[in-house]
Each structure stands twice: as C-alpha cells, then as structure tokens.
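Input record, target 12 of the design panel.
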C-alpha cells in the first residue's frame, strides 16, 4: 500500500490517528489501495505515464484518507508525484527542499481571482526548467487557508487555469462555479505544459474513477452528498 507518495502519506496519517477514520458508507468493504468498494476496484486498470512536469501535493490533514480525494489519482499515473502533509509553522523539510530545488520551476496552483494583487500570476509555465506544480489539496475552504498561511510558498508565482467547461466532478459539491477538483486541474496543467500523453492518461483514469466511485456510492436517506470524514 506504499507504492506512491500519497499512499505513504495515508499510511503515516493512519498511524497517527487516535480513533478510526469513519466516513459515510464506511461499512462498505473497500480496496485499501484505491479506496473504492471492492466490486469497483480500479487498481487493475492503472497505467503509469511519463511527463516533464512534476506535481507536488500539499494535503490538508485527513485529505489522504478520503475515498473522494482525486489528488491521489495524479500519483497513480505519475509515480514521481510528491505529497506532503500541510503545516503552517512546521513544513516538512522534503517540501522545502523540493520548492528550492534548482531542477524545477515551482509555482502554486490557485485561482487568479483569489490570489491577491501582490502575487505574480501566470497562465502557462515559463520556458526552461520543468514545471513543479504545487497543488493545495483539500476542500475549497482548506485550500484557501493553506494559500494564505503558507509563508514558505509566498515568493512563488501562482499559475491559474481557466477551465471553460463545467466540472465533471460531482463527488463533493463545489462552493462556486469555476472551482474544479484536483485531478481536473492537473489534466489541464499537463495539457498546457505539453505533456499531452500524460494528460490523456490521467483523464482516462479520472473518468474511470468517477464512474466507479459513483456506482459504488452509498446514498443516505435525506442526503446525496459524497463521503464526508469524521475527525481522527
């Protein structure tokens, strides 16, 4: 269960938990790798891809544990994806080392309209070094908190992606039009960066995940929302 950075982070987060992680539908028997119900297991369909771009997921608290999380789909397809638990005051040294590495051009993925006038905002990676796309992976409220309270990312440019289509992601409700899930934004970034094959591969993986997740989703009386976690 530890063959990519998100799965490793999930194992670490579970090891720190003081109580079991429970979500709606927690009685369903799930694959412990893809977190889908066993009948909808996605693992046999995984196809890794190569890309010049690299992704770094900065994940909020229990995000690695959620069956509805799509950031982990990036790590499924691109094995060199990095993943770290977010901390305002004690960021992991591995994250700081990656952000300052001379091998990449790091940039924070975030909507331009929320970035603030003081931040440099770009719409495409600059030429030269391979881009390092730093994605703040959590709910919209959590992502905004991470953006505002991560001083070690403040000097980095912000890349903003304008997806003109309506989001296909309906596992959690968006807070506003124009907000997309982590995997959807990553697909667009790969396209922009010229990693077309990786973009198609991740797009296919996301489509299969969405279809199988919704097929195995437990609909609770009076609620049609996706699995939401309890604290651990």
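The sequence produced for target 12 reads:
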């Amino acid at each position: 269960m530890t063959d990519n950075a998100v799965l490793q982070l999930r194992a670490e987060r579970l090891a720190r938990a003081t109580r079991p992680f429970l979500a709606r539908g927690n009685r369903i028997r799930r694959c412990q790798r893809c977190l889908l119900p066993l009948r909808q297991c996605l693992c046999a369909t995984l196809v890794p891809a190569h890309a010049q771009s690299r992704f770094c997921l900065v994940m909020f608290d229990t995000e690695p544990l959620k069956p509805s999380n799509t950031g982990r789909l990036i790590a499924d397809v691109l094995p060199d994806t990095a993943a770290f638990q977010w901390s305002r005051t004690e960021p992991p040294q591995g994250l700081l080392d990656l952000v300052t590495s001379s091998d990449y051009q790091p940039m924070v993925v975030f909507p331009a309209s929320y970035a603030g006038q003081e931040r440099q905002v770009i719409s495409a990676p600059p030429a030269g070094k391979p881009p390092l796309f730093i994605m703040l992976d959590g709910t919209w409220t959590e992502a905004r908190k991470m953006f505002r309270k991560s001083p070690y990312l403040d000097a980095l440019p912000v890349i903003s992606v304008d997806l003109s289509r309506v989001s296909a992601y309906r596992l959690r409700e968006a807070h506003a039009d124009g907000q997309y899930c982590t995997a959807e934004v990553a697909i667009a970034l790969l396209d922009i960066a010229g990693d077309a094959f990786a973009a198609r591969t991740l797009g296919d993986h996301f489509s299969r995940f969405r279809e199988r997740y919704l097929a195995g989703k437990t609909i609770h009386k009076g609620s049609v929302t996706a699995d939401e976690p309890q604290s651990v």
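The radius of gyration is 17 Å.
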